[in-house]
Amino acid sequence: MSDTTPNLPDIKAVTDQEDTTAKTRQLLGMKGASYGETSIWKIRLQLMKPITWIPLIWGVVCGAASSGHYVWSLENFLKALLCMLLSGPLLTGYTQTLNDYYDREIDAINEPYRPIPSGAISEKQVISQIIVLLLLGYGVAYTLDAWAGHSFPNVLMLSVLGTFIAYIYSAPPLKLKQNGWLGNYALGASYIALPWWAGHALFGELNWKIVVLTLFYSLAGLGIAIVNDFKSVEGDRQLGLQSLPVMFGVQKAALICVVMIDVFQGLVAGYLVSIHQNLYAAILVLLIIPQITFQDMYFLRDPIANDVKYQASAQPFLVLGMLVTGLALGHSLI
């Protein structure tokens, strides 16, 4: 009979790996990251939720592609990199910190380990972080406009618009997130349209076609935004917030979510066909297929348990589809 008792070094290795994973999840601002961090700078980073920066950074890339004027050079690369810093760490970090500040009562119910309800950081420190990120964002936006030679400060005005939307999304009296439809669309547009406009304006002329198409595309982003509501359904219900899972129930809201994501991407593919970008349209449709597969495998079966797993598996195909659309629009201008 073999001895199945694990070695103590093996147990320690597993424990160390679990601790490292927990710390990483906490720093990224991921759901369930309850590891007790004490470093104030790591706590500040957690408030900024780095995991949420990725779509905004990617949106800048899509906007640069759709401008039709991005050419590879050190100067253009540095401009794009600075715009990514603006859209991701600075303004998304501002948005997430602001949202955590105004969600501290909800988080005390849903995620009591978050920095504010757990007492890991004071409210005064949070407010100072919000102000610093806001001012740094405006400073970088102004620098980008000057660097690009804009006669009108396009990037700065887009930054002001984005931060205003972030404020009315999170803060009373409007607090758009109290309305499932309006709040999620504001979030979806902020994640898709705003960074896209900034990247496009930095390298080309922002026009109404790009504005309308990206706002339309943001309806798919609305579906992605709904995914985030499932983790906080209990707290939302207790505090009277009308998120879609509260309004329609978990299963109906999950169905609405996936339909929004798939249908509006399909309609964007149809638009690409109408401007004779057939190859790009076909690629976009092919990217929708694995999304549908993961929706059936994970999200529709248990949206609360599988929301993170679903986003990790399906969302890459959505963001790749955004780039395909950006390249198609840029190619149509050449």
Can you tag this structure with a few keywords?
334 residues; mainly alpha; Farnesyl Diphosphate Synthase; 15 helices; globular
Fold blueprint:
Layout: H1 8-28, H2 40-48, H3 53-67, H4 74-102, H5 104-110, H6 115-118, H7 123-148, H8 154-170, H9 180-203, H10 208-227, H11 233-239, H12 244-248, H13 250-274, H14 278-299, H15 307-333
Q: What does this molecule look like?
A:
- Helices cover 77% and strands 0% of the residues.
- It has helices spanning 8-28, 40-48, 53-67, 74-102, 104-110, 115-118, 123-148, 154-170, 180-203, 208-227, 233-239, 244-248, 250-274, 278-299, 307-333.
- The protein is mainly alpha-helical and 334 residues long.
- The protein has a single domain (38-333), classed as Farnesyl Diphosphate Synthase.
Briefly, what is this?
With 334 residues, this protein is mostly helical. Helices cover 77% and strands 0% of the residues.
Main pleated-sheet profile: none
Tell me the name of the CATH class: Mainly Alpha
Treating each run of at least 4 consecutive H or I residues as one helix, how many helices?
15
Number of strands: 0
Instruction: Give the DSSP E fraction (strand runs of 2 or more residues).
Output: under 5%
Mean pLDDT: 89
Overall geometry comes to globular
Radius of gyration: 21 Å
Helical amount: over 70%
Helix and strand succession? Answer: HHHHHHHHHHHHHHH
User: What is the CATH architecture descriptor?
Assistant: Orthogonal Bundle
End-to-end C-alpha gap = 73 Å
* CATH fold name: Farnesyl Diphosphate Synthase
| Structural class determined from secondary elements | mainly alpha
Low-confidence stretches: none
How would you classify the quaternary structure? single chain
